[in-house]
Design brief:
transmembrane helix; elongated; mainly alpha; 4 helices
Length: 140
């Protein structure tokens, strides 16, 4: 498998994970019978910590593959996804963790915070970068 196909495969796996967890599992869990805001946040904290760990690994692998062969075409989209992940982990997730701790500790409401909307918006951008970049690399 050549490097572009490898990078595309990694990107499309990452894309699938983001869609499955961020856009399907996360919103649906709060609709399940018996799931309170606190329970949903506790589950979400665990799930997103795991997702972000796997995303970090995929981002490192994609970066290494692209750097080894030169970045071009769809590779720039994938690097955009890596940058979005870095922004999420460095700037948005800390605010979300603080908010989750406050709600779980009884010091906040379950209403969505501004940081939550930023995270969702960045997830949309990241997913778009991953699918566009992955498809472009496969088509090249």
């Amino acid at each position: 498998m050549d490097t572009q196909t490898t990078a595309a495969a990694l990107a499309l796996v990452w894309f699938g994970m983001v869609v499955a967890i961020s856009f399907i599992e996360a919103p649906l869990k709060f609709r399940a019978p018996g799931i309170t805001t606190e329970l949903g946040l506790g589950i979400g904290r665990l799930v997103f910590a795991a997702l972000n760990g796997v995303e970090g690994l995929l981002a490192l692998l994609i970066f290494a593959v692209l750097v080894s062969d030169g970045v071009g075409g769809g590779g720039w989209w994938l690097l955009g996804a890596v940058v979005v992940l870095i922004v999420q982990l460095a700037a948005v997730r800390p605010a979300l963790r603080q908010r989750t701790r406050a709600v779980l500790g009884g010091g906040g409401t379950g209403a969505r915070s501004r940081a939550h909307w930023w995270y969702v918006g960045l997830e949309v951008v990241k997913a778009a970068c991953l699918i566009i970049g992955g498809v472009q690399l496969l088509a090249a």
